[in-house]
Design brief:
122 residues
Length: 122
């Protein structure tokens, strides 16, 4: 038999969520004033609001086994492992104007949202 060796190849998958430069800068700003012990910020989709799920971004102090980790120039964004399926293909942005400031999400998985924009459904 020929000298055939099977090798396992690892390929890098694209991140579940794409961050705009403004979102990356906002993560850097948050990490610059993060509380002691914070290792990054975490995006999750807790159940709340009239449409079912909402976006939540909070400081995180430890890595969780099934969370996705996205390293940006200014800090690390973790995505809650249970939320990844609801967020795959999303684009996370930071929008600031005279009246509001916050992360926004262009989520191809969202089938609808409530009128106030607080929550979405999949």
């Amino acid at each position: 038999m020929a000298d055939d060796q099977t090798t396992t190849k690892t390929r890098q998958l694209p991140a579940a969520v794409t961050l705009t430069p403004r979102a990356e800068q906002r993560i850097a700003d948050l990490m610059a004033k993060a509380p002691e012990g914070a290792i990054g910020v975490k995006l999750s989709t807790p159940r709340r609001g009239c449409s079912g799920l909402a976006y939540s971004v909070d400081y995180v102090t430890e890595e969780v086994k099934f969370d996705e980790k996205i390293t940006t120039p200014g800090g690390v964004l973790y995505i809650d492992g249970a939320s990844v399926l609801y967020l795959v293909g999303s684009v996370m942005d930071w929008v600031e104007d005279d009246f509001t400031a916050g992360f926004t999400f262009a989520n191809p998985n969202a089938k609808g949202a409530c009128g106030c924009g607080e929550s979405f459904m999949v």
